[in-house]
Structure formats: C-alpha cells, structure tokens
Design goal:
With 131 residues, the protein is an alpha/beta fold. The longest helix is centred in the last third of the chain and has 17 residues, at 107-123. It is 40% helix and 20% strand. It starts with 5 loop residues before the first strand and ends with a strand.
Length: 131
Amino acid sequence: MRTQPLQLALLGCGTVGAEVARRLTSHGDELAARAGAPIERVGIAVRDPGRRRVAELDPALFTGDAAELAARADLDIVVELIGGLEPARSLVLTAMERGASVVTANKALLAADGPQLYEAAEKHGGALNYE
C-alpha cells in the first residue's frame, strides 16, 4: 500500500458532489484499501464558497477558483461533477495536462469530447474514468 495519500479535488459540490465528499469521509478506510492509499480531499471548487454546506465538510476546502484548483500540480485525482460542456471540458483538460486522473459523471462531456479526453489522459499519463 502506498503511504502517501492520494490528493483529490472535487469540481462541483451540488447534490452529487456533496454526497461524494461525504462518502470519501464515511467510507475512507474502505476506499483507501481499494485505492491502495488513503485519499485526502485537498479542495472543492464551487460557485459560492461562502454558502453553507454539508456539516462534515471543512469550510477551508472550498474555493471559488475552479481553474486554480484544477491546475494544481500535486493532484492525483480530480472528480468533475459540474456538468455541461464548459467550463467542465477546460478544467478536465487542465487537470489531465498536470498529470491528474479524472473521474466524471458528465455524460454530455463524454459524448461531445470523449476521444479528445481519452487522448489527453493517455498523453499525460493519467486516466479518464466515469460512472
């Protein structure tokens, strides 16, 4: 098992994003065992960082600057839960260019740009996964 935590950023924290963030905490041990390393949330991009959120989430994780978060060089995984094509496409490509793997639930993005996204992931040594 890897000793260094996997650094994970969430892009979006609506209904789905909040539940993903919550489960990263509530199922942290199980996810760490499956991933081969602990998973550490390092940032959550939202439109309004001052808005009240799920109680279990540290307010210090929230940022209104999704582009800056996606561009961090220390990210291992970016979970894109914004939806739509833009800015999701640009943020995902930025994260991949920095070497992060991406998980998305964005069917519209995959339908419109799937081949380009898979190519970017392969080129930069990451992965593109979806559910």
